Amino acid sequence: MTQPTRDRPWLIRTYAGHSTAEASNALYRANLAKGQTGLSVAFDLPTQTGYDSDHVLARGEVGKVGVPVSHLGDMRALFRDIPLEQMNTSMTINATAPWLLALYIAVAEEQGADVATLQGTVQNDLIKEYLSRGTYICPPKPSMKMIADVAEYCYAHVPKWNPMNVCSYHLQEAGATPEQELAFALGTATAVLDALQPRVPEADFPALVGRISFFVNAGIRFVTEMCKMRAFVDLWDEICRERYGVEDARYRRFRYGVQVNSLGLTEQQPENNVYRILIEMLAVTLSKKARARAVQLPAWNEALGLPRPWDQQWSMRMQQILAYETDLLEFDDLFDGNPAVDAKVEALKEGARAELANLASMGGAVEAIDYMKGRLVESNAERLNRIEAGETVVVGVNKWQQGETSPLMSGNGDIMVVDPAVEAAQVASLQAWRAERDDAAVAKALNDLRAAAKDGRNIMEPSIAAAKAGVTTGEWAAEMRAAFGEYRGPTGVSKSPSNRTEGLDDLRASVDAVSDRLGRRLKFLVGKPGLDGHSNGAEQIAVRARDCGMDIAYEGIRLTPAEIVAAAQSEGAHVVGLSILSGSHIPLVEDLMERLRAEGMGGLPVVVGGIIPEEDARRLRAMGVARVYTPKDFELNTIMSDIVTLADPEAVAAE
Question: Hey, is 606 helix, strand or coil?
């Protein structure tokens, strides 16, 4: 009896990077030895947003959520003893994608690799950064130009590289419905292809279309998510064929990688996250027609903090068991012809087409950024309302909260903590790099880069030359800022209260009463210090405070502690709320509290929300922080009640 033919497994990746290039290199080599088949690089926030490790905005952020790469030496160390010619490397980088790809190519050339054979992906999707994640630098139109620069360069010089990875992952994290995720991602892809089409010969355009890839999310409603992926396949084929005239089916293939949903991972009963991750992985692997080409899974404890290598290994083993122990890869598509699946796919496609028509009526995805941001904030508010009301069950959170203590939780040591000394060492290394390089070569390289940007030429060649000359990430990004300007994305938070005020009557009355005692409307300032751009939580707090009748001040992401203190003064804030998800809460809050005291505002109540271990929460309270909230504090009305109490002069007098 002949054995059934097995399909090749998807690329097995682990999204990783932390502390330093040397530490991350050791982690990559260890993961490859454990059976990982592709690299997925996480960069720290200064690298993502174009700042060197010694910039004021980088304070507390260095090496926290990824690896710092400030120059060619860092990139060299990151891939030491890893032959790039043999790798398939995904780099989750957007605003600085041209620069990080330039550094990668420079290291590959140092290794003696044939650049034309390099395989991998740069995410390079700025539109979703404006909508959900916040690591943008320049305004949308010049950012689209840089995306096109990368694609044009790769088409000519690195033909196996995916120059743009349309990322709907963070759209779902920001609250997108399946229809919105489909439409906003496909709208982004068409905006990019429209910008690329004039740059290449007509006959070569289909091959360039074939290099556009996607990075998606898979949530817990895994049947709907599987149908969403089948809808993506059909809609992308339709767009490539009808909009761009691509006749070769190979170039119309929907090629995607996936990380399953981190948003749904819970701090409460975190061991349950293992099951969530497995179920979500099934959504993107069960259906052969719409199977992911690469999968990376979060770790069970990511809602608590930075996973350890063992935690990442556990998630990798989940992939390997499904790929190599089960018979999944021996069968054709399991769902072809299923009437329930076909009906759901058609419904999703119909909803996505309607949303795509909305975007088209506004002139496309770039022009519709404000609209899309507002829709995401609304959808996320609806999602949270359903959880609070118990309409959406989250096990261990709003149902079946009682349970045995997890033996996986040791009380400490169940997450990895980056040593604060890492930042000082990285800064010292960066300063040594600057001191040792050829300043004349750097000046020439920056001048050439500046001229290319000013003249509208492709920036990739001068970026690679700048990488080899020793230019730093911050210097490269400074030239882009100078040439194209900086951008502050829409917050999506309307000043007008919504109609969704059910269950808020008592809170609104309390806000009115406290406002009367204060002599003016209770003013709540929401701020995001540092470089963390994950603004979903801050937006929802601002929306709920607005709907409770508070006067809110929320100016979005990427603020210094000094700017927040100045805003608290000018706005006359009664309470300041800080949202920090990157793990940099201790240095940023410490700086802010010191500045408040220096300005005679030491009595101003400050509340902090984020992924904050209990030991850190105790330190924050010792600094004078009034309340600390973590993902387990999902009842927004309870937080609102706390804010009202903190602002109430009668409550303060009674203490």
Answer: strand
Quote the mean pLDDT of the chain: 92
Supply the pLDDT for residue 336.
96
The verdict on whether 324 is a catalytic residue reads: no
Among this protein's residues, is 532 annotated catalytic? yes
277 contacts: CB under 8 Å, gap ≥ 6: 260, 265, 297, 298, 300, 315, 318
* Sheet strand arrangement including 161-162: 15-16, 39-42, 88-92, 119-122, 161-162
Give all strands (DSSP E) within 423-469, no chain letters.
none
Predicted confidence at residue 403, as pLDDT, reads: 86
Q: The whole model's pTM is what?
A: 0.88
Percent of the chain with pLDDT over 90: 78
Catalytic: which of 534, 554, 574, 585?
534
Confidence of residue 4 (pLDDT cuts 50, 70, 90): low
User: Whose CA is closest to 90, among 19, 36, 21?
Assistant: 36
Whether 15 is catalytic: yes
Can you tell me the distance from the alpha carbon of 655 to that of 647, in angstroms, rounded to the nearest whole number?
A: 13
Compute the distance between CA of residue 524 and CA of residue 572 in angstroms, rounded to an integer.
Answer: 9
The continuous run of DSSP H or E covering 551 comes out as strand 551-554
Query: CA 339, CA 354: separation in Å to the nearest integer?
Result: 23
pLDDT in tens, 607-637: 999 989 889 999 999 999 999 999 888 899 9
Helices (H) and strands (E) in the chain, counts: 25, 15
Q: For tokens 């990442």, what's the residue? A: 312
Q: 64-97 pLDDT, tens per residue?
A: 989 999 999 999 999 999 999 999 999 999 999 9
Q: Is residue 460 classed as helix, strand or coil in its secondary structure?
A: helix
3-state secondary structure of 90: strand
The 8-class DSSP code of residue 166 comes to E
**What residues contact residue 216 under an 8 Å CB cut-off, 6+ apart?**
167, 168, 169, 181, 185, 229, 232, 256, 257, 258, 284, 292
Q: Is 170 a catalytic residue?
A: yes
The active-site residue, picked from 15, 28, 104, 155, is 15
Residue 183 phi/psi, 5° resolution?
-70, -45
Distance CA 36, CA 365 (A): 36
In angstroms, the CA 575 to CA 542 distance is 12
pLDDT in tens, 95-107: 999 999 999 999 9
452: left (phi over 0), alpha (psi -120 to 50) or beta: alpha
Catalytic residue among 52, 125, 414, 532: 532
Name the CA radius of gyration of the chain, rounded. Answer: 25
Which is catalytic among the residues 130, 136, 155, 169? Answer: 169
Over range 204-228, report the average pLDDT: 94
Residue of 489, 476, 474 lying closest to 133 (CA atoms): 489
pLDDT band at 2 (very low <50, low <70, confident <90, very high): low
E strand or H helix at 554 = strand 551-554
> How far is Cα 473 from Cα 73, in angstroms, rounded to an integer?
12
End-to-end CA distance of the chain: 81
Nearest Cα to 644, choosing from 517, 503, 535? 517
Q: Where are the beta strands (DSSP E) in 33-133?
A: 39-42, 88-92, 119-122
Q: Which of 55, 170, 344, 585 is catalytic?
A: 170
For 262-304, the pLDDT digits (tens) are 878 998 999 999 999 999 999 999 999 999 999 999 999 988 8
d(CA 97, CA 411): 39
